[in-house]
Design goal:
Strand order of the largest sheet: 3-4-2-5-6-1-7
CATH class of the largest domain: Alpha Beta
Structural class: alpha/beta
CATH architecture of the largest domain: 3-Layer(aba) Sandwich
Helix content: 25-40%
Largest sheet: 7 strands, parallel
CATH topology of the largest domain: Rossmann fold
Shape: globular
Strand content: 15-25%
Number of helices: 14
Distance between the termini: 46 Å
Number of domains: 3
Length: 439
């Protein structure tokens, strides 16, 4: 097929009108050069930038795994896998990560995918077990590689690279400007694509709230009432603080979800689904949510705790004011707490009213369905079931996400109770599946 025609079809599948400059440069560099360093901020389309040329380089006549993508977190692995499936290249993809069923992964890899995405520990586990042959792997992508190193995966990553004897191309991707390439990767003179310094700061409004109390929960509460129905990502430095903050907000009547690395995988997935589809507007998270994750249209970033480095501050702020959108970030400081050196100029102080009403409850509620792709259930099946049996109108059903063994659907809050009653004893595609409100 004509390459230009393929490109136009790919744009349509991804919902793009055209490739941005960074994606065009990545296409040329990764196709031509054996070593590429891709530096671009979160939200700039970096995933597509490296997947697009990889798709063109894959060989349909090769039966084994041709490309391995190493990522620091399972959520990023799942996100890249989803983008690849959306591209509809015709090449199989699998993702492997801790917390996922090993037996299920082994079974999936029995028919090797062309593209394998995984976290360092789980990829090395499969290599050690001999689950797949490394001999056919020609392309290696290290996405957010600096984050993987910061999380202590250097030894695992080094062992993986050493176990891939036939590599012809290496791509390193990061959202950080100042990165050191580790020696074990064997990259000495990469073609660099540098787009970290996009004019994002010009679109970001930075504000400061001064808290008279060391426990800043009252200031956070007032700020969320002030922001009302705009989505907000609230950063804490530790899991315990994120849990406590979420609990204290709930005691004051504000619904928020919590997200950190200590949660079970299903809980993390459900939380992200609820935040994406608008059934929860406020997400209290650790820096796990600062990179890589596909969380669109975050209106506000709140630094309940400031990070230790300017790089992490930048990554957090990168969740808003993305691409062409504008956004705002807020710093909550105790009155005796100094500004870190990476914020040389104090932001404008925001005075918060004290008599604002609570934010209204989200108009959407997420429903959990205990069936997914592996059960031969797709979006069309769910839409038909909820429309015919549940009597939902088109505008009463929101975002639907179908995973391997579960699915999620956003439903208008006022229709949830009736829908659950109508579908309680009914079968979806000839089988009874649990349907409940996702927590």
């Amino acid at each position: 097929m004509d390459l230009q025609l393929q490109d136009r079809e790919l744009l349509d599948r991804l919902g793009f009108t055209q490739w941005n400059v960074m994606q065009e440069q990545a296409m040329e560099a990764i196709t031509v050069h054996p070593e590429v360093l891709l530096l671009a901020p979160t939200g700039s389309g970096k995933t597509v930038a490296f997947l697009r040329p990889i798709a063109r380089l894959l060989n349909a006549s090769v039966a084994g795994i041709q490309c391995v993508v190493i990522v620091p977190a399972r959520e990023l692995a799942l996100q890249i896998e989803q983008v690849w499936k959306q591209m509809n290249t015709g090449f199989k993809v699998n993702s492997v990560y801790g917390g996922h069923s090993m037996s299920s992964e082994v079974q999936s890899l029995a028919t090797p995918p062309a593209l394998l995405i995984g976290t360092p520990g789980r990829l090395l586990d499969h290599l050690t077990r001999g689950t797949f042959s490394p001999s056919t792997v020609r392309f290696l992508v290290l996405d957010e590689f600096d984050k993987s190193l910061a999380l202590g995966f250097e030894e695992d990553m080094s062992a993986i690279v050493t176990a891939l004897p036939s590599l012809q191309k290496k791509v390193l991707a990061s959202a950080t400007q100042a990165v050191d390439i580790p020696a074990f990767v064997g990259v000495t003179n990469p073609q660099t694509i540098h787009h970290v310094a996009l004019p994002q700061d010009e679109k970001l409004d930075l504000h400061m709230i001064v808290s008279p109390e060391k426990d800043k929960i009252v200031s956070l509460f007032k700020l969320l009432c002030y922001l009302s129905d705009g989505s907000a990502l609230i950063f804490c430095n530790h899991r315990e603080a994120a849990e406590r903050t979420t609990r204290l907000l709930a005691e004051r009547g504000i619904l928020a979800a919590v997200f950190h690395g200590g949660l079970e995988q299903m809980d993390r997935e459900q939380t992200l689904v609820r935040f994406r589809n608008g059934s929860v507007r406020f997400l209290v998270a650790t820096d796990l949510a600062a990179r890589g994750l596909d969380i669109p249209e975050v209106r506000h970033v709140i630094h309940y705790h400031l990070p230790s480095t300017g790089a992490e501050f930048t990554h957090r702020n990168g969740r808003t004011a993305r691409m062409e959108a504008e956004g705002a970030a807020y710093i909550i400081l105790h009155q005796d707490e100094p500004l870190p050196s990476y914020i040389p100029t104090p932001p404008a102080e925001l005075q918060l009213p004290t008599d604002l009403p609570l934010p209204q409850a989200p108009e959407w509620v997420t429903l959990f369905i205990a069936a997914g792709r592996k059960d031969k259930v797709n979006k069309v099946d769910i839409v038909g079931f909820f429309s015919k049996i549940g009597k939902l109108e088109k505008d009463e059903l929101g975002l639907i996400q179908v995973k391997d063994h579960v699915s999620f659907a956003a439903v208008r809050r006022h229709r949830v109770k009736d829908l659950l009653l109508r579908t309680e004893k009914e079968k979806l595609k000839g089988k009874k599946y649990k349907i409940a409100i996702a927590r």
